[in-house]
Write a structure and sequence with these properties.
Blueprint: E1 4-11, E2 15-24, E3 27-37, E4 41-43, E5 46-48, H1 51-65, E6 70-75, E7 80-83, H2 104-112, H3 114-121, H4 130-137, H5 141-145, E8 148-151, H6 152-161, E9 166-167, H7 168-171, E10 177-178, E11 183-184, H8 186-191, E12 202-203, E13 208-211, E14 220-222, H9 228-234, E15 243-248, E16 252-258, H10 265-269, E17 273-276, E18 282-288, H11 292-300, H12 306-314, H13 336-346, H14 355-381, E19 387-391, H15 398-408, E20 412-414, H16 419-431, H17 439-449, E21 453-455, H18 461-470
Parallel strand pairs: 1-6, 6-14, 9-12, 15-19, 19-20
Antiparallel strand pairs: 1-2, 2-3, 4-5, 7-8, 10-11, 13-14, 15-16, 16-18, 17-18, 20-21
Helix pairs in contact: 9-16, 12-14, 14-15
The protein binds beta-L-fructofuranose (LFR).
């Protein structure tokens, strides 16, 4: 078979990347050809994405990648741009961490009915779900002038190809998508007071969107799991169905992969989500705040040497203090060490005295939240879990991986670090007839080509239960 090359555009909350992948027989190699910062900009009290700077980075990266068979685009979920009737972008997309939805989501959810919302969309309540962002925009001149709604990867694809559409894995995070009908929910769109004509036709991962007009040779742009978590889960190198995954980056997305949604009252009460995955799979998971707590702490500390801090944290006292990483206080950008200190004070725990102590508190707390969420995912779905796969940047964090294995009482298989880019590339490779056909074959290819690290649980489950009860957590 001849060698194939693909470009993965992966936009993350703190940086964007263009990665070139080469698939040659049994070898799959990645090469990051361009990385550019993603620096949100506060304007007039609203936090925006600098979408044109991101697009500039995408174009520079795609030019640097040279000739490729195709291009796939993924990014974080829920956020969007609005086009006017001439196709021009109306304003800069707003960052999901902006506070404009704070007071909105409870009212909207109560008006539509939380049970109904869950029955149709299967989604967890996150204050920033697209439904709540659009609800917050009702009455604005911008929404009144809007002709089309495009999620971030669909907007980038539109700029590259001129083609309008909505990729389904990302559409499934809007809370306006009917999971069973695999279509926009006319019912919820109407109830939210939105115009259904805003929402473009849906497209499946693996379909060709169009040609990138401004690039040499006009390579095809192919729809992938454009929600970064959907692409990351494609690249979980699982050998059978009995696994949980933690897609660990800015967020930790913790759950299991299912064939059918779980829409039970218990799942709704536990705020579990059913996001649409590649090949009709369901990502049954819950968002855990993830490395965001460390990233923001490091920003406040002026960019310290993180590996050094983690090494020091590893020898600090375990469970000196633990926090609930999902507390709403930790959602917005800001002084995380101060917020962690405040949480500890409020809950009668020692305040971490220096950066290594803060780091230990964060890592213990994340491992504890991973444990709780893996257990809940297994209990709520009935899926037996024998191994926990940690993929994404967090797979590099040996302390977090070991403590997650300890906390879950299960082996952790860490890697690939580049899961999102790999999942993006594999769906393109399959569309080109160069890999697959099923997720099982794509994952087998990863097991053969990507380095993975195994962490065995070291016991001590009682200490983890005790830490969980300090937070008042009821564990299954
Ligand atoms: C991860 C992610 C999560 C989503 C959050 C906000 O990058 O896509 O899956 O809940 O970002 O969009």
């Amino acid at each position: 078979m001849t060698a194939r090359s693909f470009a993965a555009v992966d936009l993350g909350a703190s940086s964007g990347r263009v990665i070139r992948a080469r698939l040659d027989g049994g070898t799959l190699t990645l090469d990051e050809v361009h990385r550019f910062p993603n620096e949100p900009v506060p304007v007039g009290g609203t936090l925006h994405w600098d979408i044109l700077a991101l697009y500039r980075g995408v174009l520079d990266g795609l030019r640097a990648a040279g000739p490729v068979d195709s291009i796939g685009i993924d990014s974080w979920a829920v956020d969007y741009g609005l086009l006017d009737s001439t196709g021009a972008l109306l304003g800069n997309p707003v960052h999901y961490r902006d506070a404009r939805t704070t007071g909105v989501w409870r009212d909207v959810a109560a008006r539509i009915g939380e049970e109904r919302l869950y029955a149709v969309t299967g989604l967890q309540q996150l204050p920033f779900n697209t439904l709540y962002q659009l609800s917050a925009a009702i009455g604005t001149p911008q929404l009144a002038a809007a002709h089309r709604f495009l999620m971030i990867p669909d907007l980038i694809a539109y700029w590259l190809t001129g083609e309008i559409g909505a990729e389904i894995t990302n559409a499934s995070t809007t809370q306006l998508y009917d999971l069973r009908k695999r279509a926009w929910s006319s019912e919820l769109i109407a109830q939210a007071g939105l115009d259904e004509r805003l929402f473009p036709p849906l497209r499946e991962p693996g379909t060709v969107i169009g040609r990138a007009r401004d690039l040499d040779g006009g390579p095809a742009v192919v729809a992938v799991g454009s929600h970064d978590t959907a692409s990351a889960v494609v690249a979980v190198p699982a050998a059978d169905a009995h696994f949980a995954y933690i897609s660990c980056g800015t967020w930790s997305l913790v759950g299991v992969e299912l064939d059918e949604p779980v829409l039970t009252e218990a799942g709704r009460a536990a705020n579990f989500t059913n996001e649409g995955g590649v090949d009709g799979t369901i990502r049954y998971l819950r968002n855990v705040m993830g490395l965001w707590l460390l990233q923001e702490s490091c920003r406040v500390w002026g960019g310290p040497d993180l590996p050094g801090l983690l090494a020091e944290a590893a020898v600090r006292e375990p469970f000196a203090s633990v926090v609930d990483p999902d507390h709403p206080d930790f959602l917005a950008p800001g002084d995380m060490p101060a917020r962690i200190a405040e949480f500890c004070r409020r809950t009668g725990q020692p305040v971490p005295a220096d950066p290594p102590a803060v780091v230990r508190t964060v890592v213990d707390s994340l491992a504890l939240a991973h444990r709780r969420t893996v257990r809940e995912a297994a209990a709520l779905s009935g899926r037996r879990v024998d191994v926990v796969h940690v993929v994404g940047g967090g797979a590099r964090n040996a302390l977090l991986c070991q403590l997650t294995a300890d906390a879950c009482g299960l082996p952790v298989l860490a890697g690939p670090v580049e899961a999102t880019a790999l999942g993006n590339v594999l769906v393109q490779a399959r569309a080109a007839g160069a890999a697959g056909p099923g997720l099982a074959e794509l994952r087998a290819l990863l097991r053969e080509t990507q380095p993975l690290t195994r962490y065995e649980p070291r016991g001590g489950q009682d200490a983890w239960s005790a830490a969980a009860s300090r937070l008042g957590w009821d564990e299954p």
